[in-house]
Amino acid sequence: MRHGSDGSAVIIRFRAAGGLLLLAHLLLVGWLTLRPLDVPWVTSPNFRPLAGIEADLALGPAPAARRICEGLLLLAPLGVLLPMAGGRLSVSPVASLARTALAGALFSLAVELLQTGVPGQVVDVDSVLLNTAGVALAHLTVVPVGRARLRRKQERVPGGPVPREEISQGPTPTIPRVGIAP
């Protein structure tokens, strides 16, 4: 059987691409969020949920939209890249969303905790909330459609997966008993 002639080769290439893109995105996020900033003063950390979003809204609609969109978009690619790197096609959509959103929340929390030691960077709990929401929204808009397309593509490939209804189990094999050696 040639490489690429079955559906599993498509999944392997898809997972490899997902892993490479995930690594590149995480490096970019690390560079954007964990580099020291040279600022004359730093605001205090925000540990009260939604207080930063309220402050952004008080600045006006344009600055608020920019800051909120930045928070939503920073980790949003994880919503697509994590399932892509996982490569599962047959998975519960709810479980996939929960797993991906939890991983996004944990990664966002890790970034916020690492920022405590970086000069000029400030911890903000709203960043964790916005980043997690961005991951979940990206997952909801892209992953179900992508998985459906990949399943259709895999079914069209000769030698692809056989539906469960067509698999015949047959009788259970028996193993003959072997006596003790003399």
Automatic annotation (TrEMBL):
The keyword Transmembrane helix applies. Signal peptide: none annotated. It comes from the Bacteria. Pfam families: VanZ. Residues 153-182 are annotated as: Disordered. Residues 23-141 form the VanZ-like domain. The keyword Iron-sulfur does not apply. The chain crosses the membrane at residues 12-34. Keywords: Membrane, Transmembrane, Transmembrane helix. This is VanZ family protein.
